[in-house]
Amino acid sequence: MTLRGRLRFWFRRLPVVTRLVLAVAVTMSLVLTGAACLVYWRVETALDQQLNDDLTTYGRSLDQAVRAGTELPPGPSGSLQQVLDTRGRIVSSSDAVRHRPLLTPAELAGVESGAMLRHDIGSLLPITSDTLRLRARQVTADGGTRIVVAAVRRGHRDEALRELLAQLGIASGLTLIAASYVGYRTARAALRPVERYRGGAATLAGGAQNLRLDVPADRDDEITRLGHTLNHMLDRLEASAERERRFVADASHELRTPLTLMRAEVDVALHRPRSAEELTETLRSVDAEVQRLIDLSNALLDLEELGSSGHLTRAPVRLADLVDTAVSPHRRTAERAGHGLHTDVDDTAVDVDARWLVPAIGNLVDNALRHGNGSVRVTAVVHDGRVRVRVTDDGPGFPPEFLPRAFDRFARAEASRTSKGSGLGLAFVHAVATAHGGTAHAENTGRGAVVTLELPS
User: Fold this and answer.
1) Does the 212-306 domain belong in CATH 3.40.30.10?
2) pTM (2 decimals)?
Protein backbone atom coordinates (compact mmCIF):
# COMPACT_ATOMS: atom_id res chain seq x y z
CA MET A 1 0.00 0.00 0.00
CA THR A 2 1.33 3.44 -0.93
CA LEU A 3 1.85 6.23 1.58
CA ARG A 4 -1.21 8.01 0.20
CA GLY A 5 -3.28 4.86 0.59
CA ARG A 6 -2.09 4.35 4.17
CA LEU A 7 -2.94 7.95 5.04
CA ARG A 8 -6.40 7.59 3.52
CA PHE A 9 -6.98 4.34 5.42
CA TRP A 10 -5.80 5.93 8.67
CA PHE A 11 -7.97 9.00 8.11
CA ARG A 12 -11.11 6.94 7.46
CA ARG A 13 -10.64 5.06 10.74
CA LEU A 14 -10.75 8.25 12.78
CA PRO A 15 -13.99 9.36 14.50
CA VAL A 16 -16.16 11.74 12.50
CA VAL A 17 -15.56 14.65 14.89
CA THR A 18 -11.79 14.17 14.64
CA ARG A 19 -11.98 14.06 10.85
CA LEU A 20 -14.05 17.24 10.76
CA VAL A 21 -11.64 19.06 13.09
CA LEU A 22 -8.67 17.90 11.00
CA ALA A 23 -10.41 19.06 7.83
CA VAL A 24 -11.12 22.46 9.39
CA ALA A 25 -7.54 22.72 10.67
CA VAL A 26 -5.99 21.82 7.32
CA THR A 27 -8.31 24.16 5.42
CA MET A 28 -7.68 27.03 7.83
CA SER A 29 -3.93 26.36 7.68
CA LEU A 30 -4.00 26.71 3.91
CA VAL A 31 -6.13 29.85 4.09
CA LEU A 32 -3.99 31.45 6.81
CA THR A 33 -0.77 30.52 5.01
CA GLY A 34 -2.05 32.09 1.81
CA ALA A 35 -3.18 35.23 3.63
CA ALA A 36 0.14 35.49 5.51
CA CYS A 37 2.12 35.06 2.29
CA LEU A 38 0.06 37.79 0.63
CA VAL A 39 0.55 40.22 3.53
CA TYR A 40 4.28 39.42 3.76
CA TRP A 41 4.71 39.89 0.00
CA ARG A 42 2.92 43.25 0.01
CA VAL A 43 4.94 44.58 2.96
CA GLU A 44 8.23 43.24 1.57
CA THR A 45 7.47 44.82 -1.81
CA ALA A 46 6.77 48.21 -0.20
CA LEU A 47 9.96 48.10 1.91
CA ASP A 48 12.08 46.95 -1.03
CA GLN A 49 10.64 49.70 -3.21
CA GLN A 50 11.60 52.35 -0.65
CA LEU A 51 15.05 50.81 -0.18
CA ASN A 52 15.65 50.60 -3.93
CA ASP A 53 14.57 54.21 -4.45
CA ASP A 54 17.05 55.40 -1.80
CA LEU A 55 19.79 53.22 -3.29
CA THR A 56 19.11 54.43 -6.84
CA THR A 57 19.15 58.10 -5.79
CA TYR A 58 22.36 57.65 -3.81
CA GLY A 59 24.02 55.70 -6.61
CA ARG A 60 23.23 58.35 -9.22
CA SER A 61 24.69 61.11 -7.02
CA LEU A 62 27.89 59.06 -6.59
CA ASP A 63 28.11 58.45 -10.35
CA GLN A 64 27.83 62.18 -11.05
CA ALA A 65 30.47 63.08 -8.44
CA VAL A 66 32.94 60.53 -9.85
CA ARG A 67 32.41 61.77 -13.41
CA ALA A 68 32.89 65.40 -12.28
CA GLY A 69 35.85 64.51 -10.05
CA THR A 70 34.28 66.25 -7.08
CA GLU A 71 33.94 65.15 -3.49
CA LEU A 72 31.61 62.21 -2.95
CA PRO A 73 28.30 63.35 -1.42
CA PRO A 74 26.96 61.86 1.82
CA GLY A 75 24.13 59.37 1.46
CA PRO A 76 21.17 58.27 3.57
CA SER A 77 21.70 57.21 7.17
CA GLY A 78 23.73 54.01 7.26
CA SER A 79 24.76 54.22 3.60
CA LEU A 80 28.20 53.13 2.30
CA GLN A 81 30.19 53.82 -0.83
CA GLN A 82 33.24 52.37 -2.50
CA VAL A 83 35.09 53.31 -5.68
CA LEU A 84 37.28 50.68 -7.37
CA ASP A 85 39.53 50.72 -10.38
CA THR A 86 39.28 48.10 -13.10
CA ARG A 87 41.71 45.85 -11.23
CA GLY A 88 39.52 45.83 -8.13
CA ARG A 89 41.77 48.09 -6.05
CA ILE A 90 39.97 50.41 -3.65
CA VAL A 91 40.32 54.05 -4.72
CA SER A 92 37.87 55.53 -2.22
CA SER A 93 35.73 53.91 0.47
CA SER A 94 33.63 54.54 3.54
CA ASP A 95 35.41 53.96 6.81
CA ALA A 96 33.23 50.91 7.70
CA VAL A 97 34.43 48.98 4.62
CA ARG A 98 37.76 50.65 3.89
CA HIS A 99 39.82 47.47 3.59
CA ARG A 100 37.06 45.04 2.45
CA PRO A 101 35.99 45.03 -1.21
CA LEU A 102 32.22 44.86 -1.57
CA LEU A 103 32.43 43.02 -4.91
CA THR A 104 33.76 39.58 -5.62
CA PRO A 105 36.03 39.09 -8.64
CA ALA A 106 33.14 37.52 -10.60
CA GLU A 107 30.84 40.42 -9.79
CA LEU A 108 33.59 42.88 -10.71
CA ALA A 109 34.01 41.21 -14.07
CA GLY A 110 30.28 41.44 -14.71
CA VAL A 111 30.23 45.17 -13.99
CA GLU A 112 33.28 45.76 -16.24
CA SER A 113 31.32 44.18 -19.11
CA GLY A 114 28.81 47.05 -18.86
CA ALA A 115 26.08 45.49 -16.70
CA MET A 116 24.66 47.22 -13.64
CA LEU A 117 24.73 44.97 -10.58
CA ARG A 118 22.20 44.87 -7.75
CA HIS A 119 23.09 42.51 -4.95
CA ASP A 120 22.23 41.75 -1.29
CA ILE A 121 24.85 40.91 1.31
CA GLY A 122 23.66 38.93 4.34
CA SER A 123 20.35 37.11 4.85
CA LEU A 124 17.03 37.75 6.55
CA LEU A 125 17.09 34.41 8.40
CA PRO A 126 19.22 33.42 10.14
CA ILE A 127 20.12 36.88 11.43
CA THR A 128 23.48 38.18 10.18
CA SER A 129 25.29 41.46 10.83
CA ASP A 130 26.05 44.16 8.26
CA THR A 131 23.29 43.25 5.87
CA LEU A 132 23.56 45.47 2.81
CA ARG A 133 21.93 46.07 -0.54
CA LEU A 134 24.40 47.44 -3.06
CA ARG A 135 24.39 48.83 -6.55
CA ALA A 136 27.50 48.74 -8.74
CA ARG A 137 28.06 50.47 -12.08
CA GLN A 138 30.98 51.31 -14.31
CA VAL A 139 31.61 55.07 -14.71
CA THR A 140 34.07 56.85 -17.05
CA ALA A 141 35.89 59.80 -15.50
CA ASP A 142 38.90 61.98 -16.34
CA GLY A 143 41.14 59.78 -14.29
CA GLY A 144 39.98 56.64 -16.14
CA THR A 145 37.28 54.02 -15.69
CA ARG A 146 35.96 53.50 -12.20
CA ILE A 147 33.54 51.04 -10.58
CA VAL A 148 31.16 52.94 -8.31
CA VAL A 149 29.51 50.87 -5.56
CA ALA A 150 26.65 52.40 -3.55
CA ALA A 151 25.23 50.43 -0.59
CA VAL A 152 22.54 51.00 2.00
CA ARG A 153 21.98 48.98 5.16
CA ARG A 154 19.01 46.60 5.27
CA GLY A 155 18.82 46.35 9.04
CA HIS A 156 15.58 48.25 9.52
CA ARG A 157 13.94 46.51 6.55
CA ASP A 158 14.99 43.02 7.74
CA GLU A 159 13.98 43.76 11.33
CA ALA A 160 10.54 44.91 10.16
CA LEU A 161 10.08 41.75 8.07
CA ARG A 162 11.18 39.49 10.95
CA GLU A 163 8.74 41.24 13.27
CA LEU A 164 6.01 40.82 10.66
CA LEU A 165 6.79 37.11 10.35
CA ALA A 166 6.57 36.69 14.12
CA GLN A 167 3.25 38.53 14.32
CA LEU A 168 1.81 36.59 11.39
CA GLY A 169 2.92 33.32 12.97
CA ILE A 170 1.36 34.17 16.34
CA ALA A 171 -1.86 35.49 14.78
CA SER A 172 -2.16 32.49 12.44
CA GLY A 173 -1.52 30.04 15.27
CA LEU A 174 -4.12 31.63 17.54
CA THR A 175 -6.61 31.81 14.68
CA LEU A 176 -6.00 28.15 13.82
CA ILE A 177 -6.51 27.11 17.44
CA ALA A 178 -9.71 29.18 17.70
CA ALA A 179 -11.04 27.82 14.39
CA SER A 180 -10.25 24.23 15.41
CA TYR A 181 -11.98 24.71 18.75
CA VAL A 182 -15.04 26.26 17.11
CA GLY A 183 -15.04 23.44 14.54
CA TYR A 184 -14.82 20.86 17.31
CA ARG A 185 -17.66 22.39 19.29
CA THR A 186 -19.78 22.81 16.16
CA ALA A 187 -19.16 19.22 15.06
CA ARG A 188 -19.99 17.89 18.52
CA ALA A 189 -23.17 19.97 18.65
CA ALA A 190 -24.18 18.87 15.15
CA LEU A 191 -23.51 15.19 15.81
CA ARG A 192 -24.97 15.12 19.33
CA PRO A 193 -28.48 14.27 17.99
CA VAL A 194 -26.94 11.52 15.85
CA GLU A 195 -25.28 10.06 18.94
CA ARG A 196 -28.61 10.30 20.74
CA TYR A 197 -30.29 8.48 17.87
CA ARG A 198 -27.56 5.84 17.97
CA GLY A 199 -28.17 5.36 21.69
CA GLY A 200 -31.88 4.98 21.02
CA ALA A 201 -31.19 2.40 18.32
CA ALA A 202 -28.91 0.52 20.71
CA THR A 203 -31.71 0.51 23.28
CA LEU A 204 -34.05 -0.87 20.65
CA ALA A 205 -31.53 -3.56 19.73
CA GLY A 206 -31.42 -4.46 23.42
CA GLY A 207 -35.09 -5.39 23.34
CA ALA A 208 -36.89 -2.13 24.19
CA GLN A 209 -40.42 -1.84 22.88
CA ASN A 210 -42.39 1.14 21.52
CA LEU A 211 -39.21 3.23 21.31
CA ARG A 212 -39.32 6.52 19.40
CA LEU A 213 -36.57 9.06 18.97
CA ASP A 214 -37.00 12.51 20.50
CA VAL A 215 -37.00 14.76 17.44
CA PRO A 216 -37.49 18.54 17.88
CA ALA A 217 -40.69 19.72 16.23
CA ASP A 218 -39.52 23.31 15.67
CA ARG A 219 -36.65 22.47 13.30
CA ASP A 220 -36.33 21.30 9.72
CA ASP A 221 -32.72 20.43 9.00
CA GLU A 222 -30.85 17.33 7.89
CA ILE A 223 -30.58 15.89 11.40
CA THR A 224 -34.25 16.33 12.26
CA ARG A 225 -35.25 14.86 8.91
CA LEU A 226 -33.02 11.89 9.73
CA GLY A 227 -34.81 11.56 13.06
CA HIS A 228 -38.23 11.62 11.40
CA THR A 229 -37.06 9.03 8.89
CA LEU A 230 -35.78 6.77 11.67
CA ASN A 231 -39.06 7.14 13.58
CA HIS A 232 -40.96 6.24 10.43
CA MET A 233 -38.69 3.22 10.04
CA LEU A 234 -39.36 2.24 13.65
CA ASP A 235 -43.10 2.53 13.01
CA ARG A 236 -42.80 0.20 10.05
CA LEU A 237 -40.57 -2.21 11.96
CA GLU A 238 -43.04 -2.34 14.82
CA ALA A 239 -45.93 -2.89 12.42
CA SER A 240 -43.94 -5.58 10.63
CA ALA A 241 -43.10 -7.30 13.93
CA GLU A 242 -46.76 -7.17 14.94
CA ARG A 243 -47.79 -8.67 11.60
CA GLU A 244 -45.17 -11.36 12.02
CA ARG A 245 -46.40 -12.22 15.51
CA ARG A 246 -49.98 -12.33 14.28
CA PHE A 247 -48.97 -14.42 11.28
CA VAL A 248 -47.13 -16.95 13.43
CA ALA A 249 -50.09 -17.20 15.81
CA ASP A 250 -52.62 -17.59 13.00
CA ALA A 251 -50.44 -20.05 11.08
CA SER A 252 -49.96 -22.12 14.22
CA HIS A 253 -53.72 -22.19 14.73
CA GLU A 254 -54.44 -23.12 11.10
CA LEU A 255 -51.79 -25.85 11.08
CA ARG A 256 -52.81 -27.22 14.46
CA THR A 257 -56.37 -28.03 13.37
CA PRO A 258 -55.58 -30.47 10.50
CA LEU A 259 -52.71 -32.01 12.42
CA THR A 260 -54.95 -32.57 15.45
CA LEU A 261 -57.63 -34.15 13.28
CA MET A 262 -55.08 -36.41 11.62
CA ARG A 263 -53.72 -37.48 14.99
CA ALA A 264 -57.24 -38.17 16.27
CA GLU A 265 -58.12 -40.27 13.20
CA VAL A 266 -54.93 -42.29 13.54
CA ASP A 267 -55.42 -42.80 17.30
CA VAL A 268 -58.97 -44.02 16.79
CA ALA A 269 -57.84 -46.38 14.04
CA LEU A 270 -55.14 -47.83 16.26
CA HIS A 271 -57.34 -48.12 19.36
CA ARG A 272 -58.97 -51.34 18.24
CA PRO A 273 -59.01 -53.56 15.14
CA ARG A 274 -60.89 -51.94 12.24
CA SER A 275 -62.51 -53.33 9.16
CA ALA A 276 -61.17 -52.60 5.70
CA GLU A 277 -64.02 -50.14 5.09
CA GLU A 278 -63.30 -48.27 8.33
CA LEU A 279 -59.57 -48.07 7.58
CA THR A 280 -60.32 -46.82 4.08
CA GLU A 281 -62.55 -44.10 5.48
CA THR A 282 -59.86 -43.13 7.98
CA LEU A 283 -57.26 -42.90 5.20
CA ARG A 284 -59.63 -40.74 3.14
CA SER A 285 -60.05 -38.39 6.09
CA VAL A 286 -56.31 -38.25 6.66
CA ASP A 287 -55.76 -37.65 2.93
CA ALA A 288 -58.18 -34.70 3.03
CA GLU A 289 -56.31 -33.14 5.95
CA VAL A 290 -52.96 -33.74 4.23
CA GLN A 291 -54.31 -32.01 1.12
CA ARG A 292 -55.45 -29.14 3.31
CA LEU A 293 -51.92 -28.84 4.70
CA ILE A 294 -50.49 -28.95 1.18
CA ASP A 295 -52.87 -26.22 0.02
CA LEU A 296 -52.00 -24.11 3.03
CA SER A 297 -48.27 -24.57 2.45
CA ASN A 298 -48.60 -23.73 -1.25
CA ALA A 299 -50.58 -20.59 -0.43
CA LEU A 300 -47.93 -19.48 2.07
CA LEU A 301 -45.15 -20.16 -0.46
CA ASP A 302 -47.01 -18.18 -3.13
CA LEU A 303 -47.42 -15.23 -0.78
CA GLU A 304 -43.76 -15.38 0.18
CA GLU A 305 -42.68 -15.51 -3.46
CA LEU A 306 -44.88 -12.53 -4.31
CA GLY A 307 -43.54 -10.54 -1.37
CA SER A 308 -39.87 -11.33 -1.96
CA SER A 309 -39.70 -11.11 -5.77
CA GLY A 310 -38.44 -7.79 -7.03
CA HIS A 311 -40.52 -7.73 -10.21
CA LEU A 312 -43.21 -9.46 -12.23
CA THR A 313 -42.91 -10.95 -15.69
CA ARG A 314 -45.41 -8.88 -17.62
CA ALA A 315 -46.48 -9.96 -21.09
CA PRO A 316 -49.36 -9.01 -23.43
CA VAL A 317 -52.37 -11.31 -23.07
CA ARG A 318 -56.00 -11.14 -24.22
CA LEU A 319 -58.13 -10.15 -21.25
CA ALA A 320 -60.95 -12.46 -22.39
CA ASP A 321 -58.58 -15.44 -22.56
CA LEU A 322 -57.14 -14.63 -19.15
CA VAL A 323 -60.55 -14.44 -17.44
CA ASP A 324 -61.77 -17.58 -19.22
CA THR A 325 -58.68 -19.47 -18.01
CA ALA A 326 -59.40 -18.39 -14.43
CA VAL A 327 -63.17 -19.06 -14.52
CA SER A 328 -63.34 -22.33 -16.49
CA PRO A 329 -62.20 -24.65 -13.64
CA HIS A 330 -65.11 -23.39 -11.51
CA ARG A 331 -67.99 -23.82 -13.99
CA ARG A 332 -68.64 -27.46 -13.04
CA THR A 333 -68.65 -26.52 -9.34
CA ALA A 334 -71.14 -23.72 -10.07
CA GLU A 335 -73.43 -26.12 -11.98
CA ARG A 336 -73.41 -28.70 -9.18
CA ALA A 337 -74.24 -25.98 -6.60
CA GLY A 338 -76.96 -24.49 -8.78
CA HIS A 339 -75.15 -21.14 -9.16
CA GLY A 340 -75.01 -19.16 -12.33
CA LEU A 341 -71.51 -18.07 -13.42
CA HIS A 342 -71.49 -15.21 -15.95
CA THR A 343 -68.64 -13.19 -17.46
CA ASP A 344 -68.60 -9.82 -19.18
CA VAL A 345 -65.09 -9.06 -20.44
CA ASP A 346 -63.58 -6.50 -22.85
CA ASP A 347 -61.89 -8.20 -25.78
CA THR A 348 -58.62 -6.29 -25.52
CA ALA A 349 -54.97 -6.97 -24.68
CA VAL A 350 -53.45 -6.15 -21.30
CA ASP A 351 -49.83 -6.23 -20.11
CA VAL A 352 -49.89 -8.28 -16.88
CA ASP A 353 -48.35 -11.36 -15.30
CA ALA A 354 -50.91 -14.04 -16.11
CA ARG A 355 -49.10 -16.55 -13.88
CA TRP A 356 -50.31 -14.66 -10.79
CA LEU A 357 -53.42 -12.90 -12.06
CA VAL A 358 -55.21 -16.09 -13.18
CA PRO A 359 -55.14 -17.76 -9.71
CA ALA A 360 -56.06 -14.42 -8.08
CA ILE A 361 -59.25 -14.18 -10.15
CA GLY A 362 -59.86 -17.88 -9.53
CA ASN A 363 -59.66 -17.29 -5.76
CA LEU A 364 -62.29 -14.55 -6.01
CA VAL A 365 -64.62 -16.80 -8.01
CA ASP A 366 -64.10 -19.69 -5.58
CA ASN A 367 -64.91 -17.45 -2.59
CA ALA A 368 -68.05 -16.13 -4.29
CA LEU A 369 -69.28 -19.66 -5.08
CA ARG A 370 -68.62 -20.95 -1.56
CA HIS A 371 -70.02 -18.04 0.44
CA GLY A 372 -72.54 -16.48 -1.93
CA ASN A 373 -75.99 -17.38 -3.22
CA GLY A 374 -77.52 -17.08 -6.65
CA SER A 375 -75.40 -15.95 -9.57
CA VAL A 376 -71.74 -14.99 -9.63
CA ARG A 377 -70.74 -12.33 -12.16
CA VAL A 378 -67.21 -11.60 -13.34
CA THR A 379 -66.67 -8.33 -15.22
CA ALA A 380 -63.35 -7.10 -16.58
CA VAL A 381 -62.94 -3.76 -18.38
CA VAL A 382 -60.04 -1.57 -19.42
CA HIS A 383 -60.35 2.20 -18.97
CA ASP A 384 -57.70 4.94 -18.95
CA GLY A 385 -54.86 2.45 -18.97
CA ARG A 386 -56.14 0.44 -16.01
CA VAL A 387 -57.84 -2.95 -15.95
CA ARG A 388 -60.66 -3.45 -13.45
CA VAL A 389 -61.86 -6.94 -12.52
CA ARG A 390 -65.02 -7.22 -10.38
CA VAL A 391 -66.44 -10.44 -8.91
CA THR A 392 -69.97 -10.03 -7.56
CA ASP A 393 -72.25 -12.52 -5.80
CA ASP A 394 -75.82 -12.46 -4.47
CA GLY A 395 -75.02 -13.78 -1.02
CA PRO A 396 -75.26 -12.23 2.44
CA GLY A 397 -72.06 -10.25 1.91
CA PHE A 398 -69.18 -9.71 4.26
CA PRO A 399 -69.79 -9.11 7.96
CA PRO A 400 -69.25 -5.36 8.47
CA GLU A 401 -66.64 -5.91 11.20
CA PHE A 402 -64.70 -8.20 8.86
CA LEU A 403 -64.31 -5.76 5.93
CA PRO A 404 -61.39 -3.70 7.37
CA ARG A 405 -59.27 -6.84 7.70
CA ALA A 406 -60.62 -8.86 4.80
CA PHE A 407 -57.26 -8.92 3.00
CA ASP A 408 -55.16 -9.83 6.06
CA ARG A 409 -53.52 -13.22 6.15
CA PHE A 410 -55.64 -15.92 7.82
CA ALA A 411 -58.46 -13.40 8.24
CA ARG A 412 -61.77 -15.31 8.15
CA ALA A 413 -65.25 -14.28 9.11
CA GLU A 414 -66.46 -16.09 12.22
CA ALA A 415 -69.26 -17.73 10.25
CA SER A 416 -66.70 -19.29 7.91
CA ARG A 417 -64.30 -20.57 10.55
CA THR A 418 -65.66 -24.09 10.20
CA SER A 419 -65.90 -24.02 6.41
CA LYS A 420 -63.29 -25.04 3.88
CA GLY A 421 -60.48 -22.56 3.35
CA SER A 422 -57.36 -21.17 4.98
CA GLY A 423 -58.09 -17.44 5.04
CA LEU A 424 -55.26 -16.78 2.56
CA GLY A 425 -57.29 -16.32 -0.63
CA LEU A 426 -57.98 -12.59 -0.31
CA ALA A 427 -54.49 -12.01 1.10
CA PHE A 428 -53.12 -13.59 -2.07
CA VAL A 429 -55.35 -11.37 -4.22
CA HIS A 430 -54.12 -8.28 -2.39
CA ALA A 431 -50.50 -9.37 -2.82
CA VAL A 432 -50.99 -9.85 -6.58
CA ALA A 433 -52.59 -6.41 -6.89
CA THR A 434 -49.81 -4.75 -4.90
CA ALA A 435 -47.11 -6.48 -6.95
CA HIS A 436 -48.72 -5.10 -10.11
CA GLY A 437 -48.89 -1.61 -8.61
CA GLY A 438 -52.64 -1.81 -8.16
CA THR A 439 -55.24 -2.17 -5.40
CA ALA A 440 -57.84 -4.64 -4.14
CA HIS A 441 -61.10 -3.57 -2.48
CA ALA A 442 -64.02 -5.46 -0.91
CA GLU A 443 -67.47 -4.07 -0.12
CA ASN A 444 -71.11 -5.00 0.32
CA THR A 445 -73.68 -3.89 -2.26
CA GLY A 446 -76.90 -4.62 -0.40
CA ARG A 447 -77.54 -7.64 -2.63
CA GLY A 448 -74.29 -9.38 -1.88
CA ALA A 449 -70.54 -8.80 -1.91
CA VAL A 450 -68.21 -7.43 -4.56
CA VAL A 451 -64.42 -7.61 -4.68
CA THR A 452 -62.66 -5.28 -7.10
CA LEU A 453 -59.15 -5.85 -8.41
CA GLU A 454 -57.71 -2.79 -10.16
CA LEU A 455 -54.23 -2.56 -11.63
CA PRO A 456 -52.37 -0.80 -14.45
CA SER A 457 -52.54 -2.51 -17.82
Assistant:
1) no
2) 0.54
